[in-house]
Amino acid sequence: MTFKRKKISVIGSGFTGATTAFLLAQKELGDVVIVDIPQNENPTKGKALDMAEAGPVQGFDTRLTGTSDYADTKDSDLVIITAGIARKPGMSRDDLVQTNQKVMKSVTAEIVKHSPDTTILVLTNPVDAMTYTVFKESGFPKERVIGQSGVLDTARFRTFVAEELDLSVKDVTGFVLGGHGDDMVPLVRYSYAGGIPLETLISKERLDAIVDRTRKGGAEIVNLLGNGSAYYAPAAALVEMAEAILKDQRRVLPSIAYLEGEYGMNGIYLGVPTVLGSKGIEQIIELELTEDEKTELQKSADSVKKVMEILV
Ligand SMILES: NC(=O)C1=CN([C@@H]2O[C@H](COP(=O)(O)OP(=O)(O)OC[C@H]3O[C@@H](n4cnc5c(N)ncnc54)[C@H](O)[C@@H]3O)[C@@H](O)[C@H]2O)C=CC1
Ligand SMILES: O=C([O-])CC(=O)C(=O)O
């Protein structure tokens, strides 16, 4: 039996793209091709070579390629889009829409040309609208175009809860629904520490503060960094989703998925609980929501729709 190595292409060799590529390489999830614009070809090749040279020390066997030629991405099993611009202090993610929509259109055309059967994971912001753009441009079935926000937002929530309770992050679970913006919906009712509902462990006032910090988690990092946005936790989130897809794990993870009736919404990409496996989004899980949670989710969806109205 011959073993075929998987191939993962990461579009964009900036902070998130390079960090994602390195984490993918360390986990040996497949060979990694990193693509950036021609003006950035040498730094992209340099990053790929530098990462490959960590292999002997770290004990990974991943082949890494840096390129500006999409022919190198041919027949990728998974493509991760991180290309585009990031926000700076004072900006919202939505301020990036016009520039990044153009980037999504051009990179999607190349991806589809060289890997017509691949699955695409989108990170670029504003990510709900950018995932929709990639879906439309690619013509792919909805289950093969997926956006990342909920794994990251939930990871932030879990970090803050673990800190509050002085417990292992491993024992804290949560679920953040909705768009990747200030009105995302951390579902406290579905969040636990070691199986114990958080509402019985943390006061309402402290939980409200943690929810608020989670909603503004991206901006907190943007303000600290001063010249760009988060990349370690976003890359880790992408790699968890990539692993679920490449290894057909059927993980229950929040994804930005195309809704056609689920949660009473239509024609919109939004963060919801999903089952991720080799077919991409294999199922959307519909949680029972209270009236308040439904109202919050609708508000978040309305914000995403406002950004979608700007799309051309
Ligand atoms: N969805 C999420 O949870 C998160 C989204 N992001 C978003 O990810 C995106 C990337 O962030 P960073 O990596 O920090 O930015 P960065 O500026 O470090 O890197 C972006 C890279 O994209 C490249 N690029 C631009 N146009 C391209 C094209 N047409 N083809 C190929 N490459 C192209 C640039 O040359 C640059 O190397 C931003 O839009 C950011 O807002 C970042 C973190 C979390
Ligand atoms: O805040 C940003 O611009 C980047 C991002 O989406 C995040 O870190 O959540």
Automatic annotation (TrEMBL):
Residues engaged in binding substrate: R87, R93, N125, R156
InterPro entries documented for this protein: L-lactate/malate_DH, Lactate/malate_DH_C, Lactate/malate_DH_N, Lactate_DH/Glyco_Ohase_4_C, Malate_DH_type3, NAD(P)-bd_dom_sf
Stored CDD domains: LDH-like_MDH (cd01339)
GO biological process: lactate metabolic process; tricarboxylic acid cycle
Domain Lactate/malate dehydrogenase C-terminal: 152-309
Residues annotated as the enzyme's active site: H180 (proton acceptor)
Top-level enzyme category: oxidoreductase
Family annotation (Pfam families): Ldh_1_C, Ldh_1_N
Residues reported to bind NAD(+): G12, S13, G14, F15, T16, G17, D36, N100, L123, T124, N125
EC numbers, comma separated: 1.1.1.37
Coiled-coil annotated residue ranges, if any: none
Superkingdom of this protein's organism: Bacteria
Keywords from the UniProt entry: NAD, Oxidoreductase, Tricarboxylic acid cycle
Catalytic activity as recorded in UniProt: (S)-malate + NAD(+) = oxaloacetate + NADH + H(+); (S)-lactate + NAD(+) = pyruvate + NADH + H(+)
Gene Ontology molecular function: any one: L-lactate dehydrogenase (NAD+) activity
Domain Lactate/malate dehydrogenase N-terminal intervals: 7-147
UniProt KW Oxidoreductase keyword: yes
Protein role: Catalyzes the reversible oxidation of malate to oxaloacetate.
Family, as annotated: Belongs to the LDH/MDH superfamily. MDH type 3 family. Belongs to the LDH/MDH superfamily. LDH family.
Protein name (database record): Malate dehydrogenase
Organism encoding this protein: Planococcus lenghuensis
